[in-house]
């Protein structure tokens, strides 16, 4: 007996494909599950950077912590210590489109932000058109930032804090995420200008780049003078970084860590500190932005190390990168041999 042909309706039911399941984002996952996935991604990111950069594991962690916190980092060190190469490699591994500005004494604010040009159409009508500057990117490499004049350095203030710039009275939003990784030569070197305090405060972390030890330098020599060099791979994307930044802000912080942050920040202010060295030797101390930076950076460091919540050890470890560029010693204190490193270390030990 012949079978009846299947109806078009039943045929449609048997051949129709179910829509692909939408990938769950970190922002909608449970914090524990999202943190586990993020830890794996971040470990792969660090490994990718490590193919090119040798002996700077702590500095790589600080730079990634600044990005995960949604902030900016200032890399300080002598010329030739791979500061620029580190920023370039981080840009590749994080998948952030980058632009580089070489800061020089003749650099003008318009060279960073962009400018308006007068154009005339076919009918003879004239109008201004805005041409965006290199600041319109997701990762801005400000190379040797302290070789430009204070006026030019100040052009970045609004961009770093508000994530938009104003040119000729018009607001122009920057892409998200937006980060500045700036390199700075020691202020003692010729042709440098001190960064304004207001701009220093906008850097979430200061990352000091040291000279490599003998073992790391040998590895650098062998890896960079041969016929081929290691290359970093893109691990993250801008969308994933935004998810990671949202995850960092969802991570819980214990009351003990909050108290340690408050104790540290308040103890570094000369008007309220009970420490005699701070009272008599510190010209100006950290403001509320320092506490915010320390809170976010502690969460980011915990995530980078595979922990769900920060501890007081994170506060102690990040005290110097957060506070060093937000404090200044008086001339008398420096003459007596007091250093910011030793002072911050002592304050961090008491705060925790």
TrEMBL record:
Pfam families according to UniProt: AAA_3, AAA_lid_2
Region ranges (Disordered): 1-22
Annotated Low complexity bias: 1-13
Every ATPase AAA-3 domain range: 72-205
InterPro entries the record matches: ATPase_AAA-3, CbbQ/NirQ/NorQ/GpvN, ChlI/MoxR_AAA_lid, P-loop_NTPase
Superkingdom of origin organism: Bacteria
Annotated transmembrane regions: none
Signal peptide limits: none
Domain named ChlI/MoxR AAA lid: residues: 278-342
Protein name: MoxR family ATPase
Species of origin: Hyphobacterium lacteum
């Amino acid at each position: 007996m012949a079978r009846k042909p299947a109806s078009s309706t039943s045929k449609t039911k048997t051949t129709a494909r179910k829509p692909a399941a939408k990938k769950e984002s970190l922002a909608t996952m449970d914090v524990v599950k999202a943190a586990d996935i993020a830890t794996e991604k971040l470990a792969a990111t660090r490994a990718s950077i490590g193919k090119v950069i040798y002996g700077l594991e702590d500095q790589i962690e600080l730079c990634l912590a600044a990005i995960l916190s949604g902030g900016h980092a200032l890399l300080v060190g002598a010329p030739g210590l791979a500061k620029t190469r580190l920023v370039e490699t981080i840009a590749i591994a994080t998948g952030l489109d980058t632009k580089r500005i070489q800061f020089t004494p003749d650099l003008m604010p318009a060279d960073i932000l962009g400018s308006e040009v007068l154009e005339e159409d076919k009918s003879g009508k004239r109008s201004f058109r805005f041409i965006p500057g290199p600041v319109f990117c997701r990762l801005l490499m400000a190379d040797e930032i302290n070789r430009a004049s204070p006026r030019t350095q100040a052009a970045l203030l609004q961009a770093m804090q508000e994530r938009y710039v104003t040119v000729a009275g018009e607001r122009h939003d920057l892409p998200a995420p937006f980060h500045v990784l700036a390199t700075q030569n020691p202020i003692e070197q010729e042709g440098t200008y001190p960064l304004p305090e207001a701009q220093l405060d906008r850097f979430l972390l200061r990352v000091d780049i040291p000279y490599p030890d003998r073992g790391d330098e040998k590895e650098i020599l062998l890896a960079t003078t041969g016929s081929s060099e290691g290359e970093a791979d893109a691990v993250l994307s801008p969308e994933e970084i935004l998810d990671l930044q949202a995850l960092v802000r969802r991570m819980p912080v214990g009351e003990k860590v909050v108290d340690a942050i408050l104790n540290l920040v308040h103890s570094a202010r000369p008007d309220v500190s009970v420490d005699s060295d701070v009272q008599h030797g510190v010209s100006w101390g950290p403001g509320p932005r320092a506490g915010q930076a320390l809170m976010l950076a502690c969460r980011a460091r915990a995530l980078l190390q595979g922990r769900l919540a920060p501890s007081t050890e994170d506060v102690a470890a990040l005290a110097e990168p957060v506070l060093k560029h937000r404090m200044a010693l008086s001339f008398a204190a420096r003459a007596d041999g007091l250093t910011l490193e030793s002072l911050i270390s002592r304050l961090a030990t008491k705060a925790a």
